[in-house]
Structures are given as C-alpha cells and as structure tokens.
Amino acid sequence: MRTPFVAGNWKMNKTVEESRKFVFDLSPVLGEIKGVEKVLCPPFTALLPVAALLHGTDIGLGAQDMHWEEKGAYTGEVAPSMVAEFCKYVIIGHSERRTYFNETDDSVNRKTTAALKTGLVPIICVGESLEEYESGQTAEVVIRQVRAGLAGIQPEFASRVVIAYEPVWAIGTGRASTSENANSVISQFIRKQMAVLFGETIAQDVRVLYGGSVTADNANDFFSQTNIDGALVGGASLKVTEFLAIVHAAAKRA
C-alpha cells in the first residue's frame, strides 16, 4: 500500500513573517493527521525559518526548485547541497518553470539526477499544455517527459522519486481535470512507462500525485482513484483550512 503524499507548493507567496504565522497556525493540527506524508514547499527565503518551526514534527520541507551544479558562477541559483541543508524534498520541472523559465526535459533530468545524488526526494512534474491536450497529444507528451526526466537513473534511485501529473491547462485556472481522466493518464502513461524503464514492482511502488486546481471540494474525488496517491497543491495550500481538508481527505485513503 502506497503511503498518501500531499505537498503544498506556496509558489511566490508569503514573506518570512507570513510564513511563520501560517506554519504556527497550521502545524499543530497538520501534525495530528497520521498516515499521510505531508510536505510544505515555501519560497527559498522562508526555508530556514520554516525548517526551525517544523523541527521535531513529522511535516517535511521541500524547495520549489534548484540548480543541478554543486557550485559555480550561477548567479541567483541554489545548489542541491544548499537545499539539502534544510529540505528532504525538491520540486523539479513544474509547468511554471517549464513555461516561464525555459525549463527543458534535459534540465529536469539533470536536476533529478543531482537531487537523487544529494539524497533529496525529487517531486518530478509532468503534464501537457491545453493545446497538446486538445490535439490529443497527452500520451506523447507525458511519456516523453517521464522518459526524459528519468533517463539514466538507476532503479534503486527511481524507487525514491515522486511524480506529479499536472496538466498545464488545469494549474491555477480553477479547471481541474476529472479524477477519472487523471487516473487514466497516471495508469496508462506514467505507471506503464515506469514499468518499461524500471520494472513493474517499481512502477507500482512509486507515488504519483495529481496537481492542478486541487481544492477541499474535489480532493476526495481524486483520492478515491486507485492510481492517485495524493496531490501537489498550489493555491489551496496557502489557506490553513483548505490545506488541512485536503490532507484529511488523503488520510482517508491510508
């Protein structure tokens, strides 16, 4: 049985002080919810103070991105070891990184490789754009992103990754995929491709999340699907009651 996994991606929101207050309000109740792997992914500026507040709890901490090089002349970037000082997890290849910052399948692979080498758990995002969805290219795009993102990864490392299926057309739009469609994409394209690359056991063990306009209202529907193991939550993770409701919904699956 795969342990449910819910991560809150705060994106470019919350100052350090706002982050402290949010975690102070959220963590006592969130910590009481068992049977779910829970992760908060604040901006880089808030990682250290949030890490201090989460110390001694079962709530994990993740970064929203990182560079693949260990050090060097990469102004504005953050190295894997810098992330690993405070975090266990890192989001890689989010659609907003692909769309606005020219993230490619190659850079996703480099970051995934570096994250695993450093001991981090990468949350690898895959998903098709609206144009690709409407033209029937979902399978082609998702399979390509899975294959490219995990190219050269050894099976013993592949079992540690988390994959998030995030259809680009559903992120921040309020237009979520149907739970049945998301489950089908995960089953037919993501898990099957993982089986081709690493074998059926790893394909069935790897947690695959859904992301894209997940709310307290639709979380139960998504988590009722057999191949959806949790969620990468955007906007709803900025609200204490919303995020708690989503984690509670995931706990029912445990």
- The CATH superfamily label reads Aldolase class I
Radius of gyration equals 17 Å
CATH class value? Alpha Beta
CATH architecture group name: Alpha-Beta Barrel
Proportion of strand residues: 5-15%
pLDDT average, as an integer? Answer: 96
**Into which percent range does the helicity of residues fall?**
40-55%
Order of strands, main sheet, comes to: 7-6-5-4-3-2-1-8
Please name the CATH topology: TIM Barrel
Major β-sheet profile: 8 strands, parallel
- H-E order: EHEHEHEHHEHHHEHHEHEH
Output the keywords.
254 residues; alpha/beta; TIM Barrel; 12 helices; 8 strands
What does this structure look like?
- With 254 residues, this protein is of the alpha/beta class.
- The chain has helices at 16-30, 47-54, 80-84, 95-100, 105-118, 130-134, 138-149, 155-158, 179-198, 200-205, 219-223, 240-251; strands at residues 5-9, 37-41, 59-63, 89-92, 121-126, 162-165, 207-210, 230-233.
- It has one domain (5-251): Aldolase class I (TIM Barrel, Alpha-Beta Barrel), CATH 3.20.20.70.
- Strands 7-6-5-4-3-2-1-8 form an 8-stranded parallel beta sheet.
- The N and C termini lie close together (8 Å).
Short description:
The protein is an alpha/beta fold. It is built from 12 helices and 8 strands.
